[in-house]
Amino acid sequence: MSKESKQTEYSAKNINVLKGLEAVRKRPAMYIGDVSSRGLHHLVNEVVDNSIDEAMVGYCDRIDVQINKDGSVTVSDNGRGIPVDIHPVEKRSALEVVMTVLHAGGKFDKNSYKVSGGLHGVGVSVVNALSEWLKVEVRRDGKIFFQEYKRGIPVKPVKEIGKTKRGERGTTTTFFPDSEIFKVTEFRFDILTERMRELAYLNKIITINMKDERNGGEEVSYHFKGGLIEFVKYLDASRQALHKTVYIEGEKDNTPVEIAFQYTDGYSENIFSYVNNINTHEGGTHLVGFKTALTRTLNNYAYKNNLIKEGKITLTGDDFREGLTGVISVKVAEPQFEGQTKTKLGNSETKSAVETLVGEKLAEFLEENPPVGKKIIEKCMRAAEAREAARKARDLARRKNALDNMNLPGKLADCSITDPEHCEIYIVEGDSAGGSAKQGRDRKFQAILPLRGKILNVEKAKLNKILENNEIRAMISAIGAGLGAEFDHSQARYGKIILMTDADVDGSHIRTLLLTFLYRHMKDLITSGKVYIAQPPLYKIKKGKEEFYAYDEKERDQILKRLKVDGKEKKKVEEKEEEPVAGEATEEKEIKGVVISRYKGLGEMNPEQLWSTTMNPETRTILQVTLESAANADKIFETLMGDDVEPRKAFIEKHAKYANLDI
Fold it and tell me: If exposure means fewest CB atoms within 10 Å of the residue's CB, which of 133, 310, 370, 460 is most exposed?
């Protein structure tokens, strides 16, 4: 047999069987998305979701989440407690089965859980598999049971360790993430609180207590008797509400529906939908049902009460949703999600349930509150007028540019291939950096669009004003997928939209303005994973003919250490960096034969440097912009870019410790 034949031999011995939770440790991203900070914090969500499922069936009203001093996390609830009796098939404790077997749990038995978020049944067992160690304590039947695991493997069988106090019950899980799996193992309290706050709004019977034992014992407690009404008020804290919140609650076709919404003086549509506490980013049938009922009911009310003159103007669904903030929460026994990401509901019966309930309840509300109905229709009329003005502006722009290279902006340096999957566009701050990028790029697949100055803050502008901004119009034309309601991310001319700005205060502001525009008017680019942020280096370190690039101070210090620059000499470098160098674009310091250059802007790099550090797919680092919580993203954009100063000041003060102030 030839050497080549031996290499391609394929038989039974080539088939690997991964036992127990080995598959999870081998391919963790399949189960938690990734092994970065996002996946790390998802572990806590998986454990908490078990407690929330207990709450949804009425057995739990308190959850405690604590980051311990050693970096582990403890989640405790007062639910029924995981069963510990011997499983009839597995012949071992049900607790051990739940913690060590994929797709094992009570969520598949509708007698135990009518609805649940963890439908795939892999949650807590995956957490166990990806933890260096995990300990679980169950309180039920007047007894306390305990078991410990090392990387998903039980140390000893489940054992009874004591008696409970009268009426005490529940489950307590403590785990420490495995450094062999995760790139970072340090939990951030602020990230965890975002999801816990959201869950408390969605489940008004629940109290969620949080504590961080590492930093002076920071504590917060979430309990919202008003549920979704308080959620909407929280989302609109920086906006001016036009009326009291409309609240709809009821059940149709065995589907519990809860909805709260209100109109504000803003221009964005902010509707957030949930199924069994899962944030459905892409909407689905429940959202379609709500929109259909809203449009039909308001339209009928407007004509019935002569609030719209026949033939004067026609209101569309988009007009009825401008300035609308709403939260939709449904409980579905057998939800059918499109794809494994659980971001779009497909159940057709849910559309009918939501549409019928909203139609009935909203019509009643409008009849009982005529002033509110009039305010809503007036708001929708103004939206229609702005839409019509925007349409005229678009038509005018199209006529003016009819012969201008198929409407592409003149300053766009396009790529030669046309397959979007293999094309990317850099939206670059400034003509100087744009010039270097155009020279340094790979013309085959990289396009460059330089922007002059700061674009309009779209958070405070009507659509017709937005379309008057030249830089925004250039982006719309270059991306080629439309805008707002007409936007279709599948028509985008590029598979990657990369924002490249300077590493200074102005650059951060421009990047925030760009992200605000993309989130408000091209959100599907973000949800489909097409938006990225370039990471240009902050430092160039040169010793002789060798050159190194550092993207932050930590990496700079590691390079200096390799180059034998000791701590005292490094301290001198840091002290020198605080002194501005007059008349120079890039700060340079030389110490012990090592030259350290601190870049102040993209325009200071020559085309070769920009290519090798920031644009070459083989060597660059780009950060993908993701949407973990749409409601939280909306709140942040409104806080940072809205009119109200106080919430912005509070946000900056709270998050200043995470900022890089060396800019």
Answer: 310
- The total number of residues shown for the chain amounts to 663
Cα gap 417→488, rounded to integer Å: 21
Q: Tell me, rounded to whole angstroms, the distance of Cα 481 from its chain centroid.
A: 22
Is it true that domain 228-391 has CATH number 3.30.230.10?
Answer: yes
Active-site annotation holds for 431:
no
E strand or H helix at 173, and its extent? Answer: strand 170-177
Nearest alpha-carbon partner for 534 in 608, 425, 614: 614
- Report d(CA 437, CA 431) in Å as an integer: 10
- Say how many CA atoms lie within 13 Å of 607 toward its Cβ: 11
CATH among 3.40.630.30, 3.30.300.30, 3.30.565.10, 3.50.50.60 for 23-222: 3.30.565.10
Residue 82, pLDDT > 80, answer yes
DSSP letter, residue 408 = -
pLDDT of residue 183: 84
Question: Phi and psi dihedrals of 179, rounded to 5?
Answer: -70, -15
Segments making up each domain of the chain, as ranges: 23-222, 228-391, 406-535, 539-600
* Residues 406-535, CATH architecture: 3-Layer(aba) Sandwich (3.40)
What are the E-state strand segments in 501-583? Answer: 531-534, 539-543, 546-550
404 catalytic residue (yes or no): no
Q: Which of 132, 218, 468, 504 is catalytic?
A: 504
Q: How far is CA 105 from the centre of its chain?
A: 28
Q: Is 552 a catalytic residue?
A: no
H runs (alpha helix) in 401-504: 431-440, 463-466, 470-479
**467-476: per-residue pLDDT in tens?**
889 999 999 9
| Pairing mode, strands 587-591 and 539-543 | unpaired
For the residues 117-133, what does the mean pLDDT come to?
77
Q: Which of 506, 524, 557, 587 is catalytic?
A: 506
